Amino acid sequence: MRGDDFGTARLPSSANNGCTVLVHISRSLSPGSAGVRMLRRAPPLHRALRPLPALQHRRPSSSSSPSPTHKPHTPPSAAHGHLPGAPRSSLTPELHFFNSVLEGEQIPTYRVLDANGNVVPGAKVPEVGREFARRLYETMMLLPSVDTVLYSAQRHGSISFYMTTHGEEASVVGSAAALSPTDEVLGQYRELGVLLWRSYPLSLIMSQVFSNADDASTKGRQMPVHFGSPEHHFHTISSPLATQIPQAAGVAYALKRDPARRGDVAVCYFGEGAASEGDFHAGLGMASVLGGPSIFFCRNNGFAISTPASEQYAGDGIAARGPGYGVYTVRVDGNDAWAVYNAVKEARRLALENQKPVLVEAMTYRVGHHSTSDDSYAYRAKQEVEDWKRVDNPLFRLRKYLESQGWWSSDEEQALRTAQRKEVMDAFQKAEKRKKPRLGEMMRDVWAGEEPWMISEQREELRGLLGKYGEAWEPYRKELERFEGGGRDVI
Amino acid sequence: MRPSTARYIPSHSPSSLLRANSHSPRPPRPSTPNHRRHVTNTIEPAPAGGHLPSVATSSLLRMTREAALRAPGLRWKDEPDALRDRDHEAGEGTDGARETRKMNVYQAVRDAMGIALLKDDSALVFGEDVAFGGVFRCTMNLAEEFGRDRVFNTPLTEQGIAGFGIGLAAMGHTAIAEIQFSDYIYPAFDQLVSEAAKMRYRTGGQYDAGGLTVRAPCMSVGHGGLYHSQSPEGFFLGAAGIKVVIPRSPLQAKGLLLAAIRDPNPVVFLEPKILYRSAIEQVPTSDYELPLSRAEVLLPGDSLTLLSYGTPLYHCETALSLLRSPPPSLAHLIPASLRSAQVELIDLRTILPWDIHTVIKSVEKTRRLVIVHEAGRSGGVGSEIAAEVQKRCFLRLEAPVKRVTGWDTPVPLVFEKFYIPDAVRILDGVLETLMY
């Protein structure tokens, strides 16, 4: 990145902060930057050279580029270095390898509140009112209330599995608060906070984790925490990691094409571990080339089960990959609700304005175990977790801010905790008593339309087995009692 | 006997294929694909048609307008419902005004997608290199006609193409994705099997990928080697929730593809690539569908059921011709008593969920079954069908179910003639089963 004579763009100082810096960076790398203008002034050596068809093709897409300094491509003015693969690459006599966009420095992390909830000098707190701020905090607090009850429920064997969001409340709820309620969300599994922000009923959360007859998300078919609700524009979670990322590119393209959905974006959540899947590469590649308003939101919590981020990637996190796809990118303090809110709000604006994806990497820490099937102290020190909880707590940070505004008090804190716990326990106890779905749901919804013979025949086979062994075989008899109708819809 | 024999005996020259191509509106082009990672303009190897000389003259193809309009199961989709559901009476009523046009498979596929795009504003066609018309010309001029926002290239990523299509489908759009060769569908296997197939089930019916159709060229082409020849349909047998369809001809390709695009389930639509140019027949120009999950009895018989799909159906036809009137070189190998055997030839058409009723009905009658497919034997479609047939027809069967398939090797390049289940291997399987 030297060789000014050849007009290579210089990168700005990293003294600045946050997303604006990254916008600057991508602009400085764009064709309108000083370096490229210099190139254009150079005498054209090969006027006779006809632009390649591939170059002409690029014109329509590049003229819609968001950069205000951009001008339509002019025929190459130098003999080399303007091949179709990188038509605006300037030439340099200096052999220089690089392994990061910022040449040795890490991408900065955008922050509004410090660890004590004080506003960082120069940072802007979002212009939201008292009620909105309180609602954000209350929703962030509801998340650990639900988590704590359901985590211990799994420990007591009431539900088969659970995954908490401990430590990531600001990332998940803060981002959800910056979205429109009709934005399409495609999550990984640790995004219950989005549903809570969208007022998804606690009763349905409980129904899903208990797989009872009221489970609208999966009809008892998927593991706990695999929520979904078209009404809340929350696509049903599936276990395979990162599959939702290229799907989000398709959702964004659908939004772009649908006049009735102008103003909505596709929001795709995933962890830093999932970003190692091929589907991350596929999804970002598809989204950036094909367009459509989308936000790719990475929860970088430092661990993929036991694998620390240092064993996940060797580059500068996930954010460093965004510019590689030509995607506007920002890294944000994921434990700072206002930073996440501001970043996602701006990401949303950029995505809609440009009809292109934006990548947000929220740096946070997975305080809880990966899941109820994991004991994280097998691979990290308990003290480390306790330290993070204490020194960088997203709930504490926002509470301190609210208190500083006179919007929150310790009495209200106590009342909230009591009320939320009661609300969660009530929903829990109701769901616990409810029967499982009708047994026949096991074989429905596989194919739409005419039911294939194998399904019909296999249902008959099960009917025969249950008729024969339903009473005599104790494991069947006991299990059938738990289902709505005792399995009689099949028998 | 001689004249009809001449119709079936391989000529070992590509002349019949060239004749077929001369009907094409474009100058003949080698039937070989532009191998995707090395598109060249160099001279192609000998036409693959050398293996399939009978396609151009096959009696399985409908060469007249009347025959095309009488295709069993054909349903017009541009008529009021009352007129539409006439199934086997497609030759009646308003058909007098119906037009047909001579098309090859790629033209029929293109025609189907054109109708889908025309009638459904949410329909999109995308994949690698589809914008300029596709490496097999299946999307010729679609981008010009419907715009680059509806017919467009994607980056070279099969998992991305499938995932993108699923996202569109989840939003209620019609996604017609192309995987350039079915040999390259495996990177998308996770998206198709874990996501598309299971979406309706795992979401309790709240979301589905029913709007997704994935088209991919399949089967051997004479010189495709390991990665331009595969028949991956068997791998999808366990993917409950998906449909897998393979047409045998232009008329079938158009009708089945339109049905696949409009089916409320995700469909993997595999197009036998050697037939893109070589199979030519009259195809109705208007909007029609052929039913999914319905096999078609092509030739009636009561001595043996010969079941196949895609390219090998033409080898089956040739094998039956050899059986009826063997050339002198083979005559001593074919007992005279078997030459009058009436073999029932069935095109399975839909691999998943397959039409067990038609197959069982046929085997109940003939008591003998030979299954033919190009994919390797172990874990193939034949295994599934053989198991179900022996279960249901155990007391009726007079011979073991025979499977004539590719070997359990990768599809080899220079050995292809000895890999594929060609006419003589099918003939041998039929003889063995008849003589059991």
UniProtKB/TrEMBL annotation, chain A:
Dehydrogenase E1 component domain ranges (all copies): 138-437
Record has Endoplasmic reticulum as a keyword: no
Disordered: annotated segments: 50-90
Any single biological process term in GO: branched-chain amino acid catabolic process
Molecular function (Gene Ontology), one example: branched-chain 2-oxo acid dehydrogenase activity
Cofactor(s) needed for function: thiamine diphosphate
Residue intervals passing through the bilayer: none
UniProt enzyme class: oxidoreductase
EC number of the protein: 1.2.4.4
InterPro entries associated with the record: Alpha-ketoacid_DH_E1_comp, DH_E1, THDP-binding
Name this polypeptide is given: 2-oxoisovalerate dehydrogenase subunit alpha
Organism: Calocera viscosa (strain TUFC12733)
Source lineage: Eukaryota, Fungi, Dikarya, Basidiomycota, Agaricomycotina
Automatic annotation (TrEMBL), chain B:
Enzyme class, spelled out: oxidoreductase
EC number: 1.2.4.4
One BP term from GO: branched-chain amino acid catabolic process
CDD domains: TPP_PYR_E1-PDHc-beta_like (cd07036)
Source organism of this protein record: Calocera viscosa (strain TUFC12733)
Name this polypeptide is given: 3-methyl-2-oxobutanoate dehydrogenase (2-methylpropanoyl-transferring)
Tagged with keyword Oxidoreductase: yes
Gene3D superfamilies reported in the protein's UniProt record: 3.40.50.920, 3.40.50.970
KW Nucleotide-binding (keyword) present: no
Catalytic activity annotation: N(6)-[(R)-lipoyl]-L-lysyl-[protein] + 3-methyl-2-oxobutanoate + H(+) = N(6)-[(R)-S(8)-2-methylpropanoyldihydrolipoyl]-L-lysyl-[protein] + CO2
Annotated Pfam families: Transket_pyr, Transketolase_C
Region of interest called Disordered, as start-end residue ranges on this chain: 1-53, 79-98
UniProt domain Transketolase-like pyrimidine-binding: residue ranges: 103-278
Cofactor requirement: thiamine diphosphate
MF terms in GO: branched-chain 2-oxo acid dehydrogenase activity
Assigned keywords, A-Z: Oxidoreductase
Alphabetized PANTHER family for the sequence: 2-OXOISOVALERATE DEHYDROGENASE SUBUNIT BETA, MITOCHONDRIAL, 2-OXOISOVALERATE DEHYDROGENASE SUBUNIT BETA-RELATED
